[in-house]
Amino acid sequence: MQRTLGTCYYPEHWPEETWAEDAARMADLGLTWVRIGEFAWSRLEPSPGNLQFDWLERAIDVLHDAGLKVVLGTPTATPPRWMLNKHPDMLAVDAQGNPRKFGSRRHYCFSHDGYRAEAVRITRLLAERFGRKVEAWQTDNEYGCHDTIYSYSDPARAAFRDWLAQKYQSTEALNRAWGNIFWSMDYDSFDDIDLPNLTVTEPNPAHALDFRRFSSDQVARFNEAQVATIRQHSDAPISHNYMGRIVEFDHFATGRQMEIATWDSYPLGFLEDRLEASPEHKRRYARQGDPDFQAFHHDLYRAVGRGRWWVMEQQPGPVNWAPHNPAPLPGMVRFWTWEAFAHGAECVAYFRWRQAPFAQEQYHAGLLRPDSAEAEGFAEAARVAAELKQMPDVEHTQAPVALVFDYASAWGWSVQPQGAGCDYFRLVFEVYRGLRKLGLSVDIIPPDTETLAGYALVLAPGALTLSEPLLKAISETSAQVILGPRTNAKTEHLSTPVPLPPAIEGLDVTISRVETLRPDMPIPAEGGGAVKLWFEQLDSTEQMIEETEDGAAILVGARNLFYLAGWPDPTLLQRILAQRAEAAGLAPQVLPQDIRIRDTGNTRFVFNHGPEPVTFNGQTIPPAGVIWT
Amino acid sequence: MQRTLGTCYYPEHWPEETWAEDAARMADLGLTWVRIGEFAWSRLEPSPGNLQFDWLERAIDVLHDAGLKVVLGTPTATPPRWMLNKHPDMLAVDAQGNPRKFGSRRHYCFSHDGYRAEAVRITRLLAERFGRKVEAWQTDNEYGCHDTIYSYSDPARAAFRDWLAQKYQSTEALNRAWGNIFWSMDYDSFDDIDLPNLTVTEPNPAHALDFRRFSSDQVARFNEAQVATIRQHSDAPISHNYMGRIVEFDHFATGRQMEIATWDSYPLGFLEDRLEASPEHKRRYARQGDPDFQAFHHDLYRAVGRGRWWVMEQQPGPVNWAPHNPAPLPGMVRFWTWEAFAHGAECVAYFRWRQAPFAQEQYHAGLLRPDSAEAEGFAEAARVAAELKQMPDVEHTQAPVALVFDYASAWGWSVQPQGAGCDYFRLVFEVYRGLRKLGLSVDIIPPDTETLAGYALVLAPGALTLSEPLLKAISETSAQVILGPRTNAKTEHLSTPVPLPPAIEGLDVTISRVETLRPDMPIPAEGGGAVKLWFEQLDSTEQMIEETEDGAAILVGARNLFYLAGWPDPTLLQRILAQRAEAAGLAPQVLPQDIRIRDTGNTRFVFNHGPEPVTFNGQTIPPAGVIWT
Amino acid sequence: MQRTLGTCYYPEHWPEETWAEDAARMADLGLTWVRIGEFAWSRLEPSPGNLQFDWLERAIDVLHDAGLKVVLGTPTATPPRWMLNKHPDMLAVDAQGNPRKFGSRRHYCFSHDGYRAEAVRITRLLAERFGRKVEAWQTDNEYGCHDTIYSYSDPARAAFRDWLAQKYQSTEALNRAWGNIFWSMDYDSFDDIDLPNLTVTEPNPAHALDFRRFSSDQVARFNEAQVATIRQHSDAPISHNYMGRIVEFDHFATGRQMEIATWDSYPLGFLEDRLEASPEHKRRYARQGDPDFQAFHHDLYRAVGRGRWWVMEQQPGPVNWAPHNPAPLPGMVRFWTWEAFAHGAECVAYFRWRQAPFAQEQYHAGLLRPDSAEAEGFAEAARVAAELKQMPDVEHTQAPVALVFDYASAWGWSVQPQGAGCDYFRLVFEVYRGLRKLGLSVDIIPPDTETLAGYALVLAPGALTLSEPLLKAISETSAQVILGPRTNAKTEHLSTPVPLPPAIEGLDVTISRVETLRPDMPIPAEGGGAVKLWFEQLDSTEQMIEETEDGAAILVGARNLFYLAGWPDPTLLQRILAQRAEAAGLAPQVLPQDIRIRDTGNTRFVFNHGPEPVTFNGQTIPPAGVIWT
Ligand SMILES: [Zn+2]
Ligand SMILES: [Zn+2]
Ligand SMILES: [Zn+2]
């Protein structure tokens, strides 16, 4: 399959007379795909039942006439105002008990049956009309953006009770599973169970975790309803555009429902608003984005899409929504595009064709300025389009390293962090960054992975409850495996298993005590570096590979199975990963701070993420520069 | 008109036997004016309709008998508790949906018709009784203090819908003006439009801006109702006492309704609680107040009062309401008084005569201690009274520099800052400070100014939408004019005009891109200094006056019209302002950091705002010192 | 009375088969006391009226059979879920108006009559059944934990109105006492008075203070109802387990109702979450706890219990609820136990016997791990048990220094701090720390103390309203007495007395002005050190003992009575305290930073709180080391 480019287009924002010229310019630029429709419900159905699909058909025709392919989005992230008159209680409710009102987007509760039926209805109507016409589909838009997974509404409460009743069958079973005896929290009836907000102090973590599982299931159910509807009328592949660092629902669950995973990549916005990093780091990468954040998501969505994935929205210039919104370094739009292709993207689509001069995102760049002049990203996209002609098709290669990512663990850590700063995504991402700084390419794998065949090095930091298939795969692999910290430390109800964790066959390790550390009191490791934030005291007869200056175990194990008792700082992490990678027969190399490498198929890409030129392996790579061989 | 002093007095706090002695001491001190009554509703009308005005008449008589003049305040900022029994829904509602309860002050919603009628009623009764008796009026007290302009109540919602219906006439027009198509936010009925709080993510900026315009109009309407009522029974001038850095309503709009503008000047409290400044700056000026903050407001309220303005409440010692409440440096009470007179004040009234030993402001100093002994400010006021005898009357002189201040722009920046720290008041105030540090006196002018005659230098930083009259005045002036950043960047609906901004006749400049900057990544200017926070990329054929080290335009223009593409730091600002001031024929001089100058009439005042003596032009000025010539 | 050890045990968490072994291990370890039952309501009464006390009787029997004594807790901190079906409005309401929901603990409003009756009912049933069987009682659990004293519920509002009506008898009296004239806040009816939350700006401080007095009274009333009920059926001593730095209710008031005061001592959690200290201090003591925080509470609860006090919950390892939860230094569990005994504890009970693997406190250590293996604290407790055999019984000695602690003053400072950081507990605690750093042992005394006989040095910093008995005791004592800052500065209604404070007989001092200071602008004292945060300007003819570099009075007085005009920093405080201690005939010595001394009976204990060994008086004390002679 050929690597392609695309863009997001809102014909409803512009006079119909200008569509054809827009389409012609898109085609000239070398774009293949155009995503449309995902916010257009008020024009598709201005009043209940008053369907106005003709303009959309004309827009599709114009695009097709220019040789472009169309991704049609279902408009369910933006129900029109009249929907609230039909379903006044469809709004999500925040944790403080306030309805989250109409006036922007994503103003619905996933648990509202009436709204879900409306979403299916408009999806069905669109699929009936355009199912044979468009080349791909997108469901809704950015599930979870603006903290929209958790709703504390009446419909959510009722649905949660049903969900619990189906899961536990009896309150006795639920009381036992949650340990409700602890503070006399036992329930006699599922109808007595409330949502876990506004409790006097923290709710039972099992209660909180089940609410998160339920909320994730509600998203999957909502999405599946649309997918099933589209399938009845269309053979085109279906996708959803995920958003960066949204971990409140299980993307693997929705991913399994669809052919393609896509995500919306805003490197500069993400650096500012959702990355733990020092001010120095944020300043250094303010115009390039973090060197690993996009790559992590590329690898994550390759897993979510089981190989097939796109960037559906690629930042093309400054955005409008982060605390600070600088312009990218010249060349970064091309750079980001190539980075996605290096990680296996089939398509990179720029958000958006033309900057709109009104409403919420006026200062969010497009490929065109509001006056239709070319913005800076335009020429960079054109350069990629030209370069693509020389490149092979999308290549799939298994990476040598596998890193488990488990959404339920993110919820578990969030419910029960035990210390400020103890966050699952952060832990996994730091390990990912450590691997990348050694020049390694990584596959992110789901927690129910059944085989580790082909991998030389496998890590599952912080995965709270290892699944049976993964435990079996670990026991069977000859790869170097590093578990911990906190791996397999919990039952599915977020209780502590007895015998104590990690209880891994072939590894004589028992966690006898957990402590969390002030950021200013890391525990130095004997060989340099330190453990920070999270540290476990081990009872173990395994060989001590790394220890603290006081002689406490940090890394123990033998043969190919190792347990890591704490959260390593970058220095310690590098040493551990390099040793294991070498033991695994890989050739780790410590890269310059701004350089990252990605191998795919027969191509090795080398990226300079820094603001200055870097000489690497004899070649000087300019800022925003990428070379491939 | 003579410069006078005054004080704020609460006869209802003290035994009637003591009034005469208080009045005698006030007269002895050299005071002319006494403001009374503005919080006394519960004594004027202890129960509905039970009017008790006699005590107030006696108090006025006592003051008159001592030769004092009276400003009578309408007591509408403190409706008594029984009012809530009549109008249970009169309370404002905060953005979270909670009523803002009785128990302090300003507990009313400007949109509540019933309460507005009550306010008019008590105003009418007071005006009927005292209209020919008192020498001046004050409406209400400190509109906007304690964040009281925005209310999310049911009456506010209903009034907002009416306001929108009157403004737009049809929802089609409103949808178009707001760009509601953007996220399917279109409305079919004005009754479907809600207030813009509690939306899932940011509301449409046009929606938010209209709510702010509406809220400002509600204040003007509330005030006008009182003013019109007083006018029917009194020829005395009417005023309102504005509060520092309240920009949530348009003071020019209320200012036009009344003869005099007054404001409440609390230099130390303001430094602590409403000024962006470094800790070092706050520490240096902790006992003196910021060197420019009071001056800015003096100049602002001179404009709001069309020349006639007072300080109605002057800090006389420590206050009680800021995060920290230190005592002023000895001499500062005199200093602040003279500063106000230097900027043209007709009267400076001290808040308050005697420190009250009970209720909310017990630790707020007065001229007297609670035990009636003289507090420290007393002697300083006496010194001013003595000095005033040697001084000419209030002098009015047009300043050589005009600086536009536009409340609607403050709302626009607040609704759509595009980056943390990007605030309109802050921008204008920094420019004002820059001008003052060059020894220049400044007139603040409203955004609908029709002529710039008499000015040598004109600035309108951040004024989002230049009015037709001002655009005309700019095109006609021969003054040096600096526009930008963000000047004329928006339509009145906060959308981006196409052709792109600033679209100023005679200036070939187009803003092709906007970016906002982390505080730690200023962009260095070629000649020193830097652009911070906000930076625009220009397409321009104009001469480049200032540029970044990378060659991007910072200041362009020719003849007398210039565009500034970013937010200058103090170094860059000083260079730009000094150059333009010189080109304008002014004689800018870089003052020592603590020195400020103000020219009025034939008098030049020189103030030392620092904690140490400063030698300036051969004269040594002590801390808290002012000299005039 | 012998010093004893104990533990907190939850038989309801564990299979009944294991109880006997647990009891045997407890006895073997050398424990005397076991606290049980305080969270077990849902097992004692699974549905309304369905009493299941047999298991508890069997658990008590098992413990008794092993030779252990039992403290039985009333389970009223954790009413079961069915209670809400009977009393839907029993939940407390937070200051934002949201009910604080079921799902954790302490989910009740102290003002709900129905719930109080239920609490009395279950208490009566337990007392009837076990009144002659158990050796001691505990009421409820940790009143005030999780901010549970203040409730803004409808029952609280109604009860507050009643309380005010009983206190003031007429609204005229209330209006006068509160100074409601200030902003027309007068009331015509007690039914018009609301709770002081959600006011537009700060409520009248008198209103706020009365709400705090009322809330404290509600706790006392709730507790007294249980105490009176138990007394009818039991002669065993009654206690309550207070929590660290909870000042929202008057512990002396509840303390007077019971025989024993106990508190829950979590040194590491408290250091992290409720102590003002620099990051360096927190890091240094992260594994030991603050050197004075526990001691302060030991001395406080000795006063609350009129000599009889315990640690009911002693931290035995890492906890789970602070921002960071490190493990204690080896030896600290023993160290903390001895520290309590040094201050006169009768018993130290470890929380908890066995770490529970489920629900909210999974990562909170016990003496046993969840798998019943010994955790680290186990051996340390065993060592204390062995050491105890060599020690004399609990010794009571009056300390040479008395320090007044007054809960109402804590409320007054909180309602009216006048400056950020001005907190009563913090002030008193800093003075306490200063005394301890001079090697002095301290008695904390209540504000209604009637005699100071036996004390050489007495301090009452920040005690806002000195009681008649204490004033008399001060006038009669020959001890060195230091009053101020802010001592006797307020009436009981939090107004300022006229004549002005402090109005102490025999001390010619008048506070003419109060100022609060930025943390970065301390006022240097002539002899070194400085005044910080709070500073009073004095009119005084007394001798000046300490003054600022500018000559303003800091400490004045003569003979044995002194007034301190500001909040001293540690250097100034040390000088003042050392001088007065010497004048009092004590022998203050400046201790090394980590060393603290406590004298009791004939024993002197010396503690090293630091992470390194310290040589003191020729002896080297290791980290976590204590020596006694
Ligand atoms: Zn997006
Ligand atoms: Zn005021
Ligand atoms: Zn506890």
Automatic annotation (TrEMBL), chains A, B, C:
<keyword id="KW-0378">Hydrolase</keyword>
<keyword id="KW-0479">Metal-binding</keyword>
<feature type="domain" description="Beta-galactosidase trimerisation">
    <location>
        <begin position="399"/>
        <end position="582"/>
    </location>
</feature>
<feature type="domain" description="Glycoside hydrolase family 42 N-terminal">
    <location>
        <begin position="8"/>
        <end position="391"/>
    </location>
</feature>
<dbReference type="Pfam" id="PF02449">
    <property type="entry name" value="Glyco_hydro_42"/>
</dbReference>
<dbReference type="GO" id="GO:0005975">
    <property type="term" value="P:carbohydrate metabolic process"/>
</dbReference>
<dbReference type="InterPro" id="IPR013738">
    <property type="entry name" value="Beta_galactosidase_Trimer"/>
</dbReference>
<dbReference type="InterPro" id="IPR013529">
    <property type="entry name" value="Glyco_hydro_42_N"/>
</dbReference>
<dbReference type="InterPro" id="IPR003476">
    <property type="entry name" value="Glyco_hydro_42"/>
</dbReference>
<protein>
    <recommendedName>
        <fullName>Beta-galactosidase</fullName>
        <ecNumber>3.2.1.23</ecNumber>
    </recommendedName>
</protein>
<dbReference type="GO" id="GO:0004565">
    <property type="term" value="F:beta-galactosidase activity"/>
</dbReference>
<keyword id="KW-0862">Zinc</keyword>
<dbReference type="GO" id="GO:0046872">
    <property type="term" value="F:metal ion binding"/>
</dbReference>
<keyword id="KW-0326">Glycosidase</keyword>
<dbReference type="Pfam" id="PF08532">
    <property type="entry name" value="Glyco_hydro_42M"/>
</dbReference>
<dbReference type="GO" id="GO:0009341">
    <property type="term" value="C:beta-galactosidase complex"/>
</dbReference>
<comment type="similarity">
    <text>Belongs to the glycosyl hydrolase 42 family.</text>
</comment>
